[in-house]
# Entry
Amino acid sequence: MRFRSLVLVVAGLAATVVLPLAALDALHRHLAQVHMDHTGGVLNEPRMQLQLALFALSLVPVLGAATALARWVRGMRALGLVTRAGAHASYESLRYRVLTVPEPVFFTAGLIRGRVYASSGARTSLSAEAFRAALLHETAHQDHRDVLGRFFLHLCRGAYGWLPKTGAIFDAIALEIECRADDAALAAGASRKGLFEAIAAASASTRAGVSLASEGVTFRLERLAQVRTITPRIDPRPLAGVVGVAFSIPVLAHAALVLFCDLAML
# Structure
């Protein structure tokens, strides 16, 4: 994940954590300023209702991120049942773990220490050139710690992906991660022809969603077929706008509290 994309994702996750804390702080300050003994009287106040509404709004990204985290954990548990049986192997100087799967599958798993996996079907069905190119692509993911980056991206998508125009930028960042690994594989000696063959073969697999061909297959094949590499375009404005609005919620909460308090003193 490139630096600009990483900043956007980290800012989004930071907003997810800061939002409810800041909104809760505003709510606490309001309760401290209201000298009432009856809870019903407090809840009926417009100021209190506004603070509660802002606090509830701040919890929406948290719930989305928590749901995404639960899906990730379930997926990792299911994947762990498969990868546990992987045997150590190497091709030239590239280390990986081989899985007994008849289809061509390549992927990298492990948040902290990523491991490259390749299927036995990939070794027998692909040419040596394509197999090496695919391993170089996955090794690039390993070196870039892209599994961790995709994890953060997954949480951020869960928090804000339901908002208009944000899904496209998350898809673009995911595609950027794959294109960067493609470029690294080419720089490490993979041929365009071999990587093209590997991606095309993996995309035909029923397990393509967790493999080398999980993102932007058509775009990546087109850029490999051209002499001049095409860079995916990412417009950061939608996500930057969402993050900006998210950080403005606690500010609005405090501003509303001050405004109502000033009006009450008139």
